[in-house]
Specification:
The protein is mainly α and 92 residues long. The protein has three helices and two strands. 68% of the residues lie in helices and 4% in strands. A two-stranded antiparallel sheet has the order 1-2. The termini are far apart.
């Protein structure tokens, strides 16, 4: 007695090369999309960091005195990212 899936199985085995080629194409498309997504995310992050830098440079007055020191900039980052430990002389 023939199993209902025997015909499908025989076609799958006959077309195994086509199946493997299709799987490779799908993998290549996934990798391409992942790469493109990574490039777009990095682009957006660079723009974000650039705009943050511009904002910091526009408002360089920290604590009532004008300062351009690294200490002031890292303390400014503490305002933006309160959980990060950036402000302190040992971190400069």
């Amino acid at each position: 007695m023939m199993h209902p899936f025997d015909d499908i199985r025989s076609k799958m085995l006959m077309n195994q090369t086509d199946y493997l080629a299709t799987i490779q194409e799908i993998k290549a498309e996934i990798k391409k999309a992942q790469y493109q997504a990574t490039v777009k995310v990095n682009h957006e992050l660079l723009l974000l960091y650039y705009h943050i830098g511009q904002a910091i440079n526009r408002h360089k007055v920290w604590g009532g005195t004008r300062s351009s020191s690294t200490y002031s900039v890292t303390c400014g980052w503490n305002i933006l990212m309160p959980r990060a430990i950036l402000c302190g002389t040992s971190n400069i």
